[in-house]
Amino acid sequence: MHLRNQTLILTGASRGIGQALALELARAGANLVLCARSPEALGQVADACKALGAQVRAIAGDVAQDQTVQFMVKAAKVLGNFAGFIHNASVLHSGPFVTELPQAHFDELVAVNLKASYLLSRYAYPNLLRTGGGIAVFLGSGAAELNFPGSGVYGATKAAEEYLARQLALEHPGVTCFVYRPGHVDTAMQAHHRNAEGGGGPALRTRFRGYLERGELHSPQEVAQALVRLLSDNPSQHHGTIVQYADLRRKP
After folding, report:
1. Is the pTM of this model over 0.85?
2. d(Cα 208, Cα 212) in Å, to the nearest integer?
3. What is the rounded radius of gyration, in angstroms, for the C-alpha atoms of the chain?
4. Is 31 helix (H, G, I), strand (E, B) or coil?
């Protein structure tokens, strides 16, 4: 897939993996519609991408809101050569057992990790199918299939997101759709795990501090570069699959 002069939507673009992806995609020549909830941080990323030569539209808003997603798709169409989306935005709220988690946190997990995936697909897919295809990438997590104290609802919503991606791949083979699991990355979410409170806090703190102490964390830039290389090569070979960063890293 040639990324140059293609337009991609990227959610969660203001920090961490999203920020790194925005910069790597801009370096590869893509134009971008970036979304995050922090206007100031998002604006800084957008400016950095523009400095690399990309055309950029920055949309500060909640990706789980219908109006925000419609606006993103319209902006991508205006930029031209709309080629798809990467749904990187996520929330965590780790630490509490399922029975301890406040309902507001439950609702936010469902909204950002699942509802936003549905909305992006609902509004992007018809446009992509009309123009001959594109890509839909969902940032997944090993938590989708690993039960661990204090991450139950996060894992459940990521499992649902990954299921949705496989369903989209089945229903619309004309759009290359896959899940990308970055593994353990040195981000604010990892830091949250290392300081988790609640019933599952002690187990999470032990596990995730261990990754840091053993030097097992990847950088956002590493996992972003690997995904952009994949997209620049032949992403259709991964249609309907779960792509692990660790597997890409092992390839020569």
Report:
1. yes
2. 7
3. 17
4. strand
Contact 45, 69 (CB under 8 A): no
What would the pLDDT profile of 111-166 be if each residue is shown by its tens digit? 999 999 999 999 999 999 999 999 999 999 999 999 999 999 999 999 999 999 99
* CA atoms of 69 and 197, how far apart (whole Å): 33
* Residue whose structure tokens are 């002690």: 202
- Topology of domain 7-250 in CATH is Rossmann fold (3.40.50)
Q: Tell me, what DSSP letter sits at residue 218?
A: B
Domain-by-domain residue ranges, the chain? Answer: 7-250
Strands (E), 115-160: 134-139
Neighbouring residues of 108: CB distance < 8 A, sequence distance ≥ 6: 91, 93
Token match 């910069």: residue? 23
Torsion angle in degrees (nearest 10) through CA of 179, 184, 186, 192: 100
Of 235, 250, 201, 30, the closest CA to residue 101 belongs to 201
